[in-house]
Give the backbone structure.
Amino acid sequence: MGEAFQQPVVPALRAAFDSGLTRPRVWRVRQLEALGRFLLEREEELAAAVQADVGKPPAEVFFTETAFLQSEIRYALQHLGGWMRPKRAALPLLYQPATASYAYEPLGVVLIIGAWNYPLQLVLAPLVSAIAAGNCAVLKPSEQAPRTSACIAEGIRHYLDGQAFLVVEGGPLEARQLLRERFEHVFFTGSRAAGREVMRAAAMHPASVTLELGGRCPCIVDSGMQLKTVARRIAWAKFLNAGQTCIAPDYVLVRRGLERMLADALREALVSFYGPSPGRSPGYARVVGDDRLLRLEERFPGIADESPGGGRSLPPTILEGAGPEYAGAGDEIFGPVLPLVSYGEIGEAIGMIRDGEEPLAIYLFSTDRGVQQRVLRETRSGGVCINDLLFQAAVPSLPFGGVGRSGFGAYHGRAGFEEFSTRRSVMKRPIVADMSLRYPPYGNRKFRFLRWLLGCFQ
């Protein structure tokens, strides 16, 4: 944001919030509709920016960025009235006559810090939730997707209410400057190291925090049924965006005896998706950043390939016969390499998952209800998808978020509305009914009677 970002940005937005600007439902609806128009009218410009920044093919931009966001907006518009409506609360007989209710009210001014791998979705999906909840918001898109960041800044400025929304561009310095200001809530998507820094900064005010951090998402293949379909689903989910998806399968735990068949089916699926040279296909994304490319080359020597335009690229790679060291603990691959780790029985696979930290997602291919229930019962994760991948994060009615080291807090749909809201309780009693039992002095008989009464009617 350059020289304009020398003074605190929050006070002007807080003045707008305190004026009541964002509270009416009609205002929220208009802002959501305007955000939808921005995505529709600037679709080609946004797709070109994302492709230039992160090498994502146009079809992937549509499915994982703009169409996803339009779905979130439509869902919020359909359900906003119900979300905002006060909810009645039951009252014990002891507190009658009275009425009780609670309502979701906006938090105030919130900060949303996005990530580079989905540079539109990971900034604007939280914004949908923040708008629906009635907040003012400062957006900090990733500096590693500068063209997309510029498009977001220009679009928010022209389509949304400038009194309530602001985009701050820049890098870590600008992010740290923002975190020194007092926000009511900070929503962050990114690495664990940066997430810890966000938490420390938010604790100074204090502000509530949502952290979406990622982790090593396992995929279990426990059955040989429909193996070609299983392989196509895994290959699609893993190599979408060149493996740079926080909920992509990081490794596959495959029942012993199925590994070679699964590997062959995965390679067949890759050829059907991207042609005989998948890494050179225009429909395949690229690994973003020389540092990430170098890290992956060092971790998996010999997998890099010469790209058509010069330089190095990483094609989709199936790492057959990987040892158990590729499962559970360790750093997330976050790239187009998929290790296949064999196991003997489902308890062994569960044990390898539990040796690591809680992932954002666990995937399981099995038609055995007993296996399904055991995996659900004996593991922890932000979400689970059985016999498919990724879609648990695409359904607006399902909360999306992490647990443990993969983050905390959830959004999408109603979960996002609630994440950016505070529940305010209201109780109303008539002033005419006033029993003397509640007041001192509490003699022995009166105290015994009150103990009995509380035990009966709580």
Summary: The first helix runs from residue 10 to 18. The radius of gyration is 26 Å.
